[in-house]
Recover the amino acids of this structure.
């Protein structure tokens, strides 16, 4: 089990280049989360709830420990979740403000290394994650019925709407809680 920040360097893991958009079509067999469950009007509340769960997890003593050799630590995943929530808010803003935007590529693994997720302060990450969750949740609460279908796509061509991107994003922090809770 990797326990120290020097050993927990994010560049020690192979990049995750899988396309996770399949979670829009079926429940995740790993974490069990079904993004299609619940109404779109509940998505803001789901973001707040998973943000709270992450805040609790980031307060644990073992936040820097990698419980599995092929997974980041809770701190590293917490940084990732914080950044995913920020990026989601930005992208949903683009979907709402622009006609059919194409999102710039974001390399999560490159960001983890460049930002030294493994060395960040857990309390700062916790506070920033909660703010990011609230900002995104508020944006989702404000989406009007006629805006949920507004389209856009990722740089790889994967199409999204406000609703599908919102549901896709909710899976990420739920799944990563599973990543750090299993051995």
């Amino acid at each position: 089990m990797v326990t120290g920040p020097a050993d927990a360097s994010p560049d020690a893991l192979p990049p995750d280049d899988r396309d996770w958009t399949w979670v829009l079509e079926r429940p995740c067999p790993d974490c069990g989360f079904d993004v299609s469950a619940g109404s779109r009007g509940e998505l803001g509340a789901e973001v707040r709830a998973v943000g709270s769960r992450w805040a609790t997890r980031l307060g644990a003593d073992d936040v820097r420990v990698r419980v599995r050799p092929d997974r980041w630590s809770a701190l590293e995943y917490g940084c990732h979740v914080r950044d995913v929530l920020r990026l989601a808010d930005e992208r949903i803003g683009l979907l709402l403000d622009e006609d059919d935007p194409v999102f710039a590529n974001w390399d999560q693994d490159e960001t983890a290394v460049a930002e030294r997720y493994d060395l960040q302060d857990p309390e700062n990450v916790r506070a920033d994650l909660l703010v990011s969750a609230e900002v995104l949740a508020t944006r989702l609460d404000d989406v009007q019925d006629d805006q949920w279908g507004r389209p856009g796509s990722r740089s790889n061509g994967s199409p999204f709407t406000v609703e599908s991107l919102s549901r896709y994003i909710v899976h990420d922090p739920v799944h990563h809680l599973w990543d750090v809770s299993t051995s």
Observations:
- The chain has one domain: 35-181.
- Confidence is low (pLDDT under 50) at residues 1-8.
- The radius of gyration is 16 Å.
